[in-house]
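TA notes. Do not distribute before section.
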Amino acid sequence: MEFDLEVSIDRPVAEVFAYVTDVRNVPEWQESADSAEWIEEGRSFRERRSFMGRTAEIELEVTALEADRRFDVRAVRAPVKFEIRHSFDGRDGGTLLRVHGEAKLGGALRFAAGMAKRQAESQFRKDFQRLKAVLEAT
């Protein structure tokens, strides 16, 4: 399962990058996130999420970190294995944030892949609108 999304944020790239890459901010803009904390800053972090009536603890590894350009993560301990690539581009004083997500669905989830993809994309869109609102309000 793969998806691509983007959002334009009327804030400088450095501000958007700093906010998105500080995982402690995740619960402020991602609805399913209950908590997020660094295990080893810049290298790995842990999230606690609630989704579809279930709670899961997820451990992620930072696979790419390029200041003001790129932030990629990969789930190393999670119910569903996934990777998310974030790219940050400056546009007229603002930022175009692009995200590419890939998840490997196994077992019973494989049969519900279409529904899972639609739900994940919908949630990401809502989260990005919340991210835009939070950053543009500052």
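Switch to the second chain here.
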Amino acid sequence: MTLEIIEIGHPVLREVATDMSLNQLASPEVQEFIDELIDTKRSANGAGIAANQVANTWRIFVVEIANNPRYPYKPEYPLTVMVNPTITFKSDKRFDNYEGCLSIPNIRGVVPRCPEILVEGFGRGGNKTKFEVKGITAGTFQHELDHLDGILFPDRVEDPKTFCTWNEFTARYEDDFKQNVKQIVAEYGS
């Protein structure tokens, strides 16, 4: 079952999500919600989705990139469910990431993102997890964590002149951005 994705202006998108206990996480209600969050992400062709985007304040997000028509230039990444996640930047470097969002339809903008991060938290089974994410995919993880902190990508755009619709992005900026992504993938591997 898919859930309704709320859009910019809805107050839950600006709330800081609440940490979950491992007992809560193990409950059938939360496990069903995670299944629905995954289905919703896949149905909407998102690279990731956070609980806030479906009007829920549990501190959970999902990332998965596989043959995604919205982001054909993104490298594949396996399904990853993060509960109570934290991210630590492992580099002072930043790359320009042209981002979109399921909760902000038809708008894109350039956000500086760290290309090397350490992700920590719990998986859906309650197992403690810690791993590095590099390159363009690191930007996806940062975008989803921002959601859990009530931050939307336009808040991170440094130059408002980079805002554009999807059609304008496709017509004017996508080819250059694809070249940028190729360089990032060549340097960082994802």
